[in-house]
Amino acid sequence: MSGNTGPRPQRFSAWTTRRWLRVGVAVSLALLTVLGVTGAWVLGRTQTLSEDLLDVKAPAVSTSFRLEAALLNQETGIRGYGLTGNPDFLTPYRQGLTDQATNAARLAELLHDDPARLEDLAAVREAARNWQERTARPIAAAPAGTVSPPSAERAAQGKASFDRVRAALSGQQGRLEADRARAVEHLSASMGLCNAIFAAIAVLIVLLAVLVFEALRRGITEPLDRLGADARAVAGGDFGHPIALTGPADLRRLSGEIDFMRRRLVRELAFVEEARLRLDAQATDLQRSNAELEQFAYVASHDLQEPLRKVSSFTQLLQRRYGGQLDSRADQYIDYAVDGANRMQVLINDLLDFSRVGRVHRELQSVDLGSVLKRTLSALSVSIEETEASITHDPLPALVADPTQMGMLWQNLIGNAIKFHRPDEAPRIHVTAVPEGEQWRFTVTDNGIGIDPEYAEKVFVIFQRLHTKEAYNGSGIGLAMCKKIVEFHGGAIAVDTGYQDGTRITFTLAAEPPKAVGPSTLPEATRADTEQEPGTEYGAERDPERDAEQVQAR
User: Fold this and answer.
1) Are the C-beta atoms of 58 and 173 separated by less than 8 Å?
2) Count helices and strands in the chain by DSSP H and E runs
3) Model pTM?
4) Residue 445 φ then ψ, to 5°
5) Which parts of 304-325 fold into alpha helices (H)?
6) Can you tell me the distance from the alpha carbon of 263 to that of 53, in angstroms, rounded to the nearest whole number?
7) 393: which residues sit within 8 A by CB, 6+ positions away?
8) pLDDT value for 159
9) 431: three-class secondary structure by DSSP
């Protein structure tokens, strides 16, 4: 037959800290109660024995001796009176009678619940009564002053009768002394037992204190210390450190829950780490893709300069030399070609400027934005005069920024505000600047045609135009360039859609640009060739014959 070989269930493994405390306190109280009741009983018995000794046994012995003294006084007085006839001897006799009655009554009161000792007292009384009737009273009744032989004879006979009284007294006193000795012995034993019990109570209290301390140390303090050490190890970064399950059931359950939380945290951290690695890889790929796109845009726009310069130069030469010599349709075609080449030149130059933001202009220094705005207004003076624009501004701060990019920012924002004005109203433009935490918030407000809220995000996308080129000229890069400049300097830009009387552009700039701006991703050979050739700047006057000669020479 196969028996059950599994582990025996541990009876106390499921006990919680509260149950252990309840059982411990109950057992301790039970033991202390038993010892306390026993001690109280022993103490009460000791008190009873002490009272019996002090109030009964010892007074009975002393009273017995006083009774003996009273009888001895009677015998001495009667014997002297019988031999001499002197009445003075009757005085101790009579006093002895009084003391006998008092002491006998006292002794009977003390021994009222002790029949054996009352029998001894009755024997003493009986012997004394016989002696008094046969000897003492007849002698005391004799006339005083004479000695009668019969009285003398009675006195001699009374001596033998009084010896029986002495014998009764001796027996009574011996037994009373024995009772007192036994009471003293019982009292000593009871006091010893009482002292032993109270000593046991003291020892038990000390043992209980030691047991409670040891139980708290092993059942609560050490498990909590172990749990705290494990938790600190996990909090210190050792997430693989397991939480030990020790102590009572509730502490083990708490440790298990913490360990479950640790394991879940490990899983979450592993998932987060995996997601971070994927995001880093995606960010690296995106950064490389952006760099490649930026390089492609720059190279493409830069390399388009040469063929575009040929097209632009020769179409302008055709317009100069053969304008009016051909038919009107030929002149129209030439105009289309010249206009397309010029607009392509403007678009390429704007794209070059856009690609240079954050790459070429990187000279960060303290810039007075008020002075930069003043220079921008000077550059836009022709447009300002033609439109009779009114431009005001609040005091502007000095920030650490790239001065060239700040000039491009003001030129695009102010230029747009002038360009998109209402036909029947002169432009009114106001610039404000207020501190906002560690940044500055700027607003450029105008009374122009405004921007619909649905296009508030679209206007900052490159090449996105809300109007045709016949209505408003431009390449659609201006606000996209502004966004790139603002973000390069740690800020953000947006259209205030709540403003209805025109357009309000708000943007923020940090007091110092973020330090995360990295070096240009373009190759050194390409970056070295970022400066425009003379005569190719945006808006510069060009000589088509000189350009054609340069093209032919090349």
Assistant:
1) no
2) 16, 7
3) 0.43
4) -115, 135
5) 305-322
6) 78
7) 370, 373, 430, 431, 432
8) 72
9) strand
